[in-house]
Specification:
The complex is a heterotetramer.
Chain A lengths: L8 H4 L1 E3 L5 H45 L6 E12 L2 E9 L1 H24 L6 H20 L3 H19 L6 H34 L7 H6 L6 H18 L8 H4 L5 H10 L4 H8 L1 H4 L3 H22 L5 H21 L3 H28 L12 H4 L1 H15 L5 H15 L5 H26 L7 H6 L5 H16 L5 H4 L1 H4 L9 H24 L2 H9 L1 H8 L4 H49 L5 H20 L1
Parallel strand pairs in A: 1-2
Antiparallel strand pairs in A: 2-3
Helix pairs in contact in A: 2-3, 2-4, 3-4, 3-10, 3-15, 3-21, 4-5, 5-6, 6-8, 8-11, 8-13, 10-15, 13-14, 13-19, 14-15, 14-18, 14-19, 15-17, 15-18, 15-21, 17-19, 17-21, 18-19, 18-24, 19-24
Chain C lengths: L3 H21 L3 H26 L3 H31 L13
Chain D lengths: L8 H22 L7 H20 L5 E3 L4 E3 L1 H27 L4 H20 L3 H19 L6 H32 L4 H11 L3 H18 L7 H8 L2 H25 L5 H24 L4 H22 L1 H29 L15 H4 L1 H15 L5 H15 L3 H27 L13 H19 L2 H12 L3
Antiparallel strand pairs in D: 1-2
The chains are: A mainly alpha, B mainly alpha, C mainly alpha, D mainly alpha.
């Protein structure tokens, strides 16, 4: 399937408009409102204004979506941001097919989560600060997807990193939560460092042939100026950034800990929007990645590895949010797998569908936690089916979707990825096989979660059971809407819609076995989960006992965190202590003070020469005279 | 106009001396008033500064010592304009922040205004002798500020600061003398006029040791890596106002000195020194960040962060390309604002709790929310979050450094990561977490006066982050002129900046 | 007439004896006498040189030197007397009030 | 009848006036009651003022007198101004000082005037004998002055040491003159210069030059010959120490420069090596030993040795700029040192000299004006612009750099950094330590206050507007021809 993606033709149609700026502006106004007026006007006003702002920008996004010229883009240049020497960067926003889809997802799902949060945070006293951060996050995410050049994308990129830091550490009084936020920011920063290096290399390589730009459309026009091997380095560096932001193998450690934040935050940031930034960036720079197959294969292998690896950990987790977190890491792995094999549309399609059902799963989990008065350990739950029907049914639909049961959105996007993985020249049967096993495991742990939480009888303490209630309307309505989207999402004509960017989509024709095996494996996974956790729960326990070593390894997340701490964090802190105590204090200061002391030592030595005796003075006098005479007599 | 800006503070300082000892309030208001007036006049400089010209503007030239061809010769160009503005902008803020200094207020204000004169003079002097005079005049008030109003080990810190800087500057004096007599040998007249000295044809060998003398003096001031040990002591012991000015402006004297004197006067030596200084600045960046990480004392942490930030500035400068130098000049301004604000914040808490140890604080957000949010924005600007001023400077520097030397760029980027680490860790231990200590429960939030101090700083951080153009366009021409001088090697002819006209390919609007 | 070098050597020797006297003897008065000896040694060389060069300047200087030496002796002995009256000793080793 | 040869009285005027005033003081002292003694001081000041005015008017002229052995040239007149400045300020400081120490005023003032006569003769002499005569007149007067505080043992000891070593050094100087006379056949500087320029240096001449260096080295307190200075300066009464540090050193340098830079300029190559070593040794020894002193007066003694080192750097720098730099630096050095000693006197009280660093503690904020003056002097001695000390050092180091002695300039600069430490220690104790010493109110001692004021204003004024005085020193050195 050759990549006849759109040549210059797509760029001709770029309408200059001036209303795009309002999309990020409305949430920003929300931020200012919350900071300055939030406390004074009280909870009521905050609960109306914050979601309202997001809804307004949703409307503007819709407007932009309708007027999007066929195959072209809307551009809104605001002002000249940085211009120094040959660097020339405008503060400009653009909407093309990819950005249109992204802003709709961000504002749409974002709005639903804002509404949900009004309910979820009902009894939290610091609501203004919470919504200020949430609006700031939405604004930065919009800036990220609307940015017309790589630098603006980076601004949004770090902006969302900041907001995730603030929101994860929202309940700052608890040290453990605050350090989780810090961990997220620092790991993101490591990724951003790679991103920056890639950006510099791109800028200067283009500069070689006198093309001074960072804006996507211009880069695309002059992409020929970038030699292949340099392109590989650039793509890998940018992929480091993406891995940092979208939690792939080396840099995924922050996402599970990010669950310390409030659940709607996890839903919005760590499921629907922020973590997809990496995928958006690679999709946005597809013409660059197309130059280096090696980079693409690296992306694919890392994606597949992450998908499989995270799924294995997800099997045994007992914290409801941790399971969902690892499932997100795994699904992101799938998206990178799709990008890696060149199936950009499939990747973006899965991104959209994943946004819907994963947000739904998190919100469902939030409503469960809310009901179970902040209990997160699923082993202490059970039998919520009857007590929280809406939550159960929406949760059930989402599980079906993510497991790839035919008919729902997950099936369309995930199976498409697996087919592409098999069929595409960049893909390989091995990738397909790993993907399929992953799909099976996904189905298994999702339904394990469903059965343990909602089926059987409730294992919580008596008074907790007494309080279990269905969440209020403000929480259940968004759940319902998202459930509908999870079902309908698969049928959006996205593949055709994105064709101007990624080229006409051709159905990969693959042997029926390859095409249907993942679905079968998925259904098998569900059945196995049903057997193990509903029919005869004992099996699960003795299996856990049987393979206890393996179980313990998985449960402790392969001890990755402890390894990182020992290999990276502790040596750095040790070295800085050494640098400070030894190098600074002893070596440099030592020499400085030493010089001062030698002066004084000599001083006290010379001082002894003045011993007060006249004849001693006459002697030194004579020595001086002799020296001068001696000088002349030689 | 320039001379008015320089000598107004000195005049006010002398008048202050005659004021009675008791009315501290009057003395404070008078000093603040004068500082504000100076700021307004310096704004006049900004307004009618013509950014299309590269050479010096508002030039004033009066013969001073005829025998040696020394003139009182001052002028401003794109680079020094903003440093002058930074000085006149920071001094009123610092005076406002020193409202709670109660011991010997009159002398405190006297030394501050005298310090301002010294700094401004050094920034606008175009005669090497005059520059040297102001360079030394700057030392004495700072020495007194640290020595008299400082903390426990103030005397050691003050003497160390003074002697350390003096060693460098006196060696520079010998180099200046040698330059003047070289000019005499080549053109027959002894002169200290910078513009004429730019045209000197200096043999490579002599250029090296001359550059070394200048570079040593400025490296101590910057401070570049091995010469930085005086900075933490000076910062920790100096009073809040002293640290802000020390970090805000005095450190920039070193980098400004490199850009104005060391680089254009000795182009060949500058090129020869690029690898060493780039290595030192990269080490400085990483070393500063690493050591800052383990500091128990807040002020020491910010001091080491300054070592790291100024390592960036030096890196950008020695990239010898437009982006690098523009970034380094811009970062000088940013560092002045963000580190100045950081020190003020530390001062606010120090004034209330009289301790600088991070472990004594914790959970301040609940107690002082406004303070915590101001601290948040300042911290973010200091670690270079896009959208705030730090990012623009650091981005340009890293871009320039990456072009000059890929590895330097790579290590500099790691500096950005380490920067985030120590800042966030400090922020978490001070602001987040449980409100454990009893004393912290009694802390009051920012007073209106303190808010008045931070609003202009925060506004500038945002403005310089989102709309840096007015600054960058004004610097452009002077930086091009300096670059042309640095590139000219020993060819004496004044080479116009011959850069291929950049093909400005911008997506059609 | 003996060549000029004999006289110069003699005055050199006298001069060195004077210097040795200053260094070795303890008693301040004897030190002072040794200094006078040095001055006279120089007078000798002046006279010898004057004769050798045939110019009167040398002789003239000797007169001046003698006058100065006399004045110096007066003042010097007065000082030594003052020190003796206060400290009962003029031994150079004891006069060590001020040192380091 | 012996016809007196025509005597050019005009050239002698600057010497006659102080001599005459001295005699007047002595006579007036006889009939005077004890408490009006201070009037003698004002008489002395009047005399010196007249001398200064006369010297200033005679600046432009250049007339030889006494057939070549004495001249009236602007070089000598410039030095006269320095001597009068030193004399006047010492007198002002002494008025009050004599009350706290029971020194007999009459002889005291007369001897200072006679010492100044010796200096004037020394500066104007163009003949080795006159130099010797001037030197001895000055020295004998100052030997006595050093020991004039008879009750204090230190003063006696100082006088004795100064006398013995002074006489010892004059012995060497004389021997040098003799050898020079032998080698060149004349004692007139003009003739010697001609002889040296034609025949260059014979060994006898070189030995003579060596002896001269030893003789002058002692007077100027150059390194190996400086050992007497700390004891004598500390022992002598502080006003006399000030007078010695400034006046005597200036006079010695006047003769030293005239003989070496002008007369023996031809063989500069031979003796500049020694002076180079002497300069470095003097600066370093002076500065390093000063570091460890804890008596301010003794520290200033070592610092005056260090400054002699800087002056030797000017000597090494030689003809073009060196001489002018030397003269200018002597003015600067004079002002700073007189001021500093003035402040030490101001801090002292009857009975307790208060010369330790600790005695200066906490002075900064209790006596702001006095402390400010001391800070100005200390900073100027360190060489911080915009004070006269810096301009002086700048002048000397530019002379050294111009003459190509780069390393000398670098060593000189590094020495100033070392010197910064012990000068700043005074400021540290004044401003940064707490103390309770209560010196007498300055207003009670107007003369002393005026002296310190003159010195301080001079230090600041000549620092900020040095152009005129630099030109004057350059012209007067060129007048040597």
């Amino acid at each position: 399937m050759e990549h006849a993606h759109a040549t210059a033709q797509a760029l001709s149609l770029s309408l200059s408009v001036s209303y795009l700026r309002y999309i990020p502006l409305f949430p920003l106004l929300g931020v200012l409102f919350n900071i300055f007026l939030g406390h004074r006007l009280g909870r009521k006003a905050v609960n109306i204004v914050s979601p309202g702002m997001v809804f307004l920008s949703f409307l503007v996004s819709l407007h932009a979506f309708w007027n999007l010229p066929e195959g072209g883009r809307l551009v809104d240049t605001m002002w000249l941001w940085i211009s120094s020497g040959t660097l020339h960067v405008d503060f400009a926003l653009q909407v093309d097919q990819l950005s249109a889809m992204m802003i709709l997802v961000v504002t749409g799902v974002g709005f639903l989560i804002h509404v949900y949060s009004t309910g979820y945070m009902a009894h939290d006293h610091d609501v203004a600060r919470y919504f200020a951060y949430l609006n700031l996050f939405t604004a930065s995410m919009l800036l990220l997807v609307l940015g017309e050049n790589l630098l603006l994308l980076f601004v949004g990129w770090e902006g969302v990193g900041l907001c995730s830091y603030l929101l994860i550490g929202f309940w700052y009084t608890d040290d453990e939560k605050a350090s989780a936020g810090k961990k997220a920011f620092i790991v993101n920063r490591v990724g951003d460092a790679g991103f920056l290096l890639g950006l510099f290399l791109l800028f200067w390589t283009l500069g070689e042939s006198n093309v001074w730009t960072l804006s996507f459309s211009t880069i695309q026009q002059h992409i020929a100026a970038v030699p292949a091997e340099v392109a590989t380095v650039i793509c890998l560096l940018l992929f480091v950034g993406a891995a940092g932001k979208s939690a792939q193998i080396p840099l995924y450690v922050w996402l599970p800990d990010a669950m310390a934040g409030p659940t709607p935050v996890s839903a919005l940031i760590h499921a629907a929007t922020m973590v997809t930034a990496g995928i958006y960036m690679i999709a946005r720079l597809n013409f660059l990645y197309a130059l280096s197959p090696t980079a693409l294969s690296v992306v694919a292998t890392v994606g597949a590895a992450t998908a499989f690896f995270a799924a294995t950990i997800g099997l045994v987790q007992t914290d409801i949010k941790k399971v969902l977190a690892y499932s997100t890491v795994s699904q992101l792995g799938y998206m990178f797998l799709a990008l890696g094999v060149g199936a950009y549309t499939a990747g973006v399609f899965h991104l959209m569908t994943h946004a819907f059902f994963k947000a739904l799963l998190f919100l469902g989990a939030g409503s469960v936690i809310h009901g179970m008065s902040d209990e997160q350990d699923i082993t202490k739950m059970g039998g919520l089916k009857s007590k929280m029907p809406v939550t159960f049914w929406t949760f059930f639909i989402a599980c079906l979707a993510i497991a790839g049961v035919p008919g729902l959105s997950g099936f369309f996007s995930k199976d498409l990825i697996l087919e592409e993985a098999y069929a595409s020249p960049l893909g390989s049967p091995m990738l397909w096989l790993v993907g399929t096993i992953g799909a099976g495991m996904t189905a298994f742990y999702m339904f394990r979660l469903l059965f343990v939480t909602f089926f059987g009888e409730n294992r919580a303490s008596h008074e907790v059971q007494h309080h279990i209630h269905e969440s209020p309307a403000s929480m259940t309505v968004p759940l319902a809407i998202l459930a509908v989207l999870s079902i309908v999402g698969g049928y959006f004509p996205l593949l055709h819609f994105l064709s101007p960017l990624f080229g006409e989509h051709h159905e990969p024709h693959v042997a029926p076995l390859i095409k249907y095996l993942p679905t079968v494996v998925g259904l098998g996974g569900i059945a196995l989960a049903y057997v193990m956790y509903v029919l005869n729960p004992a099996i699960a326990d003795n299996m856990a006992r049987g393979l206890s070593a393996f179980h313990k390894l998985l449960f402790n997340k392969y001890y990755i965190d402890e390894i990182y701490d020992a290999v990276i964090v502790r040596p750095i802190v040790g070295m800085s202590n050494w640098l400070w105590k030894v190098w600074d204090a002893i070596v440099i200061d030592g020499t400085v003070n030493g010089a001062a002391h030698t002066m004084e030592a000599n001083g006290s030595l010379l001082r002894l020469w003045q011993n007060g005796n006249v004849q001693n003075y006459a002697l030194s006098f004579l020595i001086g005279a002799m020296a001068i005479l001696g000088y002349y007599l030689w | 106009m320039v001379s008015a800006v320089i000598f107004l503070p000195l005049l006010a300082a002398v008048l202050l001396l005659f004021m009675a000892k008791e009315e501290e309030e009057l003395a404070r208001r008078f000093a603040l008033g004068v500082a504000l007036v100076t700021f307004v006049i310096s704004l006049g400089l900004l307004v009618n500064f013509d950014s299309s010209k590269a050479d010096f503007q508002f030039v004033e030239r009066v013969p001073w010592i005829a025998d040696f061809g020394i003139h009182y010769y001052v002028g401003v160009d794109g680079i020094s304009l903003f440093l002058v503005l930074l000085t006149t902008f920071l001094v009123p803020i610092v005076l406002l922040a020193s409202w709670d200094v109660h011991s010997r207020v009159k002398e405190y204000l006297f030394f501050f205004l005298m310090l301002e004169t010294g700094m401004l003079g050094a920034l606008v002097a175009l005669d090497l002798f005059l520059f040297y005079v102001f360079w030394e005049v700057m030392l004495i008030p700072m020495y007194f500020l640290i020595g008299v109003w400082g903390g426990a080990r103030r005397i050691y810190a003050a003497i160390k600061f003074l002697l350390y800087t003096m060693v460098g500057s006196l060696l520079m004096l010998v180099a200046i003398l040698y330059l003047a007599y070289l000019h005499n040998a080549q053109y027959g007249a002894v002169t200290f006029d910078l513009l004429q000295l730019y045209n000197l044809k200096i043999p490579e060998q002599t250029q090296l040791w001359l550059f070394a003398a200048f570079a040593l003096s400025f490296a101590i001031k910057v401070p570049l890596f091995p010469f930085h040990t005086w900075l933490p002591d000076a910062h920790v012991e100096a009073p809040t106002g002293g640290s802000v000015i020390l970090a805000g402006v005095l450190l920039k004297m070193g980098t400004y000195g490199f850009l104005r004197f060391a680089l254009p006067l000795f182009p060949d030596a500058a090129h020869a020194a690029v690898p060493t200084i780039m290595a030192l600045s990269v080490i400085g960046i990483i070393y500063g960040a690493l050591v800052a990480m383990v500091q128990p004392d807040l002020k020491k942490l910010v001091a080491y962060s300054s070592v790291s930030h100024l390592g960036f500035v030096m890196l950008g400068m020695f990239a010898f390309n437009m982006q690098g130098i523009a970034g380094s000049v811009y970062q000088m301004l940013n560092h002045g604002i963000s580190t100045g604000a950081l020190f003020l914040l530390v001062g606010v808490v120090y004034e209330r709790r009289h301790t600088r140890l991070i472990s004594d604080y914790g959970g301040l957000w609940k107690q002082m929310p406004v303070y915590a949010s101001v601290f948040l924005v300042t911290m973010l600007s200091s670690i270079g979050l896009p959208g705030l001023n730090g990012f623009v400077g650091e981005f340009l520097i890293m871009l320039g450094a990456f072009k000059a030397n890929v590895w330097a760029g790579a290590f500099a980027v790691s500096g950005v990561v380490l920067g985030a680490v120590y800042m966030l860790w400090m922020y978490q231990r001070v602001i987040f977490g449980e409100l454990k200590h009893e004393e912290n429960k009694k802390l009051t939030d920012l007073s209106p006066r303190e808010i008045a101090i931070f609003t202009p700083l925060l506004a500038l951080m945002l403005l310089m982050g989102l709309y840096p153009q007015p600054f960058l366009t004004r610097m452009e021409k002077s930086i091009e002129a300096t670059l042309a001088r640095v590139e000219r090697k020993t060819a004496v002819v004044q080479v116009e900046p011959v850069e291929p006209p950049p093909v400005q390919v911008v997506a059609e609007r | 007439m003996a060549p000029i070098s004999y006289h110069l050597i003699l005055s050199g020797i006298l001069f060195t004896i004077g210097v040795m006297g200053v260094l070795l003897r303890r008693n301040t008065i004897i030190i002072f006498m040794a200094i006078e000896l040095m001055l006279n040694a120089v007078n000798l060389s002046f006279v010898a040189l004057a004769r050798h060069l045939g110019s009167m300047d040398g002789q003239l200087i000797v007169l001046f030197v003698m006058a100065v030496a006399a004045a110096e002796a007066a003042v010097g002995l007065a000082i030594i007397l003052m020190v003796f009256r206060n400290k009962e000793t003029i031994n150079a080793d004891e006069l060590k009030l001020m040192r380091w | 009848m012996i016809k007196l040869p025509p005597v050019n009285w005009l050239s002698l005027l600057p010497a006659i006036i102080p001599a005459f005033t001295g005699i007047l003081v002595l006579c007036w002292d006889l009939g005077m009651k004890n408490e009006e003694r201070h009037r003698l001081a004002w008489l002395g000041i009047l005399g010196l003022a007249i001398t200064a005015v006369v010297s200033f008017c005679l600046l432009g002229r250049n007339e030889p007198a006494f057939n070549g052995s004495y001249t009236l040239d602007s070089y000598a007149m410039f030095f006269n101004l320095i001597f009068c400045l030193a004399g006047i300020l010492t007198f002002l400081m002494s008025i009050q000082y004599l009350h706290t120490s029971d020194i007999h005023a009459g002889e005291y003032y007369a001897l200072i005037l006679f010492a100044i006569v010796g200096m004037v003769v020394m500066a104007a002499a163009t003949d080795l004998v006159n130099i010797f005569l001037g030197l001895e007149t000055m020295s004998i007067a100052v030997y006595v002055l050093a020991g004039i505080w008879r009750q204090r043992l230190q003063s006696n000891e100082a006088a004795l040491k100064y006398f013995l070593l002074g006489a010892f050094a004059s012995g060497f100087l004389l021997y040098g003159i003799a050898l020079l006379y032998g080698a060149t056949g004349s004692i007139q500087l003009g003739k010697i210069a001609m002889h040296v320029n034609e025949h260059g240096a014979s060994t006898i001449l070189l030995i003579g030059v060596a002896m001269l260096i030893v003789g002058f080295g002692f007077k100027v307190a150059a390194a190996p010959f400086h050992v007497w200075t700390p004891d004598v300066y500390e022992g002598a009464p502080t006003t006399i120490t000030a007078f010695m540090a400034v006046g005597v050193k200036a006079a010695a340098f006047a003769a030293f420069a005239r003989v070496f830079l002008h007369t023996l300029g031809g063989i500069h190559g031979q003796w500049e090596g020694i002076l180079w070593v002497l300069a470095v040794l003097t600066m370093t020894v002076g500065n390093i030993t000063a570091l460890v002193q804890n008596n301010v007066k003794r520290m200033l003694a070592y610092s005056s040795i260090a400054h002699a080192g800087y002056l030797l750097v000017a000597m090494v720098a030689g003809k073009e700029l060196g001489g002018a730099a030397l003269m200018y630096y002597l003015v600067a050095y004079g002002l700073m040192n007189l001021g500093a000693f003035g402040v030490i006197i101001a801090v002292g009280r009857r009975g307790e000299p208060n010369e330790e660093f600790a005695d200066f503690a906490g002075l900064g904020f209790r006596y702001p004006l006095l402390a400010l003056a001391m800070t100005v002097f200390m900073l100027s001695l360190t060489g911080i612009p915009p004070l006269v000390g810096f301009v002086g050092k700048f002048y000397i180091f530019s002379a050294a750099v111009k003459a190509g002695y780069l390393w000398l300039a670098v060593i000189g600069v590094l020495n100033s950094v070392i010197s910064a430490y012990y000068y700043i220690r005074v400021i540290v104790s004044m401003y940064m330590h707490e103390g309770d010493k209560v010196p007498e109110k300055l207003s009670a001692r107007p003369a002393l206050a005026v002296a310190i004021l003159i010195a301080a204003v001079g230090t600041i004024w000549l620092g900020v507007f040095p152009s005129a005085s630099m030109a004057l020193s350059r012209l007067s050195f060129l007048a040597l021809g």
